[in-house]
């Protein structure tokens, strides 16, 4: 047992969509599933289960198979203020071993050409089972997928 490692990071993205549309892509379960849970082109990631109840006190749950390991994601929404503020917490485990617990704040503000999203995550990594660099990389990929979803067809 190596203990608890407290970390945090902030990412910013500018999207060419208004902040209400960005919020909706986060709030609507079918939209969030597309950018957050589904992984087309990644044969090593299989979505097994996804459910989401977007409201203060509502929960979100995902089960994934990643490189043969069972990954579970469990979240709870604390604040959902349309069109631009979210606060939620989540934890993750791999094969029944807790990886981390996080508190996330997301703001979506009007910007000159659309929306500026700021994502801040405070994490406690447990017993060295995950690393900040992996979490940052994964979150960057998710926010990029969100951006692709927002591009008009």
Automatic annotation (TrEMBL):
Pfam families per record: AHSA1 (PF08327)
Domain Activator of Hsp90 ATPase homologue 1/2-like C-terminal: 17-150
Transmembrane regions: none
InterPro entries membership: ASHA1/2-like_C (IPR013538), START-like_dom_sf (IPR023393)
Protein family (similarity comment): Belongs to the AHA1 family.
Protein name stated in the entry: SRPBCC domain-containing protein
UniProt source species: Pontivivens ytuae
């Amino acid at each position: 047992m190596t203990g608890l490692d407290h970390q945090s990071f902030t990412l910013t993205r500018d999207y060419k969509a208004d902040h209400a549309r960005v919020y909706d892509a986060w709030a609507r379960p079918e939209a969030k599933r597309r950018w957050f849970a589904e992984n087309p082109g990644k044969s090593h990631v299989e979505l097994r289960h996804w459910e989401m109840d977007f409201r203060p006190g509502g929960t979100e749950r995902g089960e994934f198979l990643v490189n043969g390991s069972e990954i579970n994601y469990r979240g709870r929404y604390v604040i959902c203020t349309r069109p631009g503020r979210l606060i939620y917490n989540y934890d993750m485990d791999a094969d029944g071993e807790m990886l981390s617990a996080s508190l996330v704040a997301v703001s979506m503000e009007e910007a000159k050409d659309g929306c500026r999203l700021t994502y801040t995550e405070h994490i406690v990594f447990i017993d060295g089972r995950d690393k900040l660099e992996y979490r940052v990389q994964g979150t960057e990929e998710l926010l990029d997928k969100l951006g692709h979803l927002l591009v008009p067809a």
